[in-house]
Amino acid sequence: MQITINLPPDLEQDLLRQAEQSNVPLQTLILQALRQVIQPPSVSTSQWSEFILSYEGIPDFPPFESYRDELLPPPEPELF
């Protein structure tokens, strides 16, 4: 299938530059971009937001492991 579209000059130059930098033909670059847009997102590729990834915590908050000594041991299983 062949489709003709008119691109604004700035977009055309950006595409040409990107194709040259990536060392791929312009047609390949455009096809890759279109496939990326129309493919549904994969469930397994979900990522945490940048807000979550950049969270550094509270510096003076004690680590969770510091309370481990205060925990009761698990009960022994009852055998019938």
Describe the structure concisely.
This protein is an all-alpha fold and 80 residues long.
How many distinct helices?
A: 3
Strand content: under 5%
Instruction: List unreliable stretches of 5+ residues.
Output: none
Question: H/E series, N to C?
Answer: HHH
Any overview of this molecule?
- The protein has 80 residues and is mainly alpha-helical.
- Helix 1 packs across helix 2.
- The chain has helices spanning 9-22, 26-38, 50-53.
- The chain is elongated, with a radius of gyration of 27 Å.
Task: Considering the chains and any ligands shown, give keywords for the structure.
80 residues, mainly alpha, elongated
Give the topology:
Blueprint: H1 9-22, H2 26-38, H3 50-53
Helix pairs in contact: 1-2
